[in-house]
């Protein structure tokens, strides 16, 4: 359910930014994708913080968190708003170029492959473009993702 909302936000921001920039160029695709990546961090960062903390709970011991919302509530009580947004800068540094690379790569590949309605190979071409774009996106930012995850896990030292 959450991913549906995030995807709607990403594609809405990307499309509106692209329209605001005017011409559809590869540079504008990158900028529009980067804007979408930056905006979705506000939601994505706390969700990933909870996911990281839940994954790192000691499986054999009593659970510190009963779920994502409980995890975020406990972090908020202990650390405040700043704690809930732990790793925001590294998330921004990951998501902004990552989404820019994704939308740029997807645009270039769909144009290069000639993805036009009515093409009998349209679906395989779109799958290839989407998959390749995802790979390029992650390759461009994987080291930053490792740093982000470690920053978010760092708060566990003081956790119950």
From TrEMBL:
It is a multi-pass membrane protein. Solcar repeats lie at residues 24-112, 124-160. Its main location: mitochondrion. It is found in: Mitochondrion membrane. SUPFAM superfamilies: Mitochondrial carrier (SSF103506). The keyword Ion transport does not apply. Keywords: Membrane, Mitochondrion, Repeat, Transmembrane, Transmembrane helix, Transport. Belongs to the mitochondrial carrier (TC 2.A.29) family. This is Mitochondrial carnitine/acylcarnitine carrier protein CACL. It comes from Galeopterus variegatus (Malayan flying lemur).
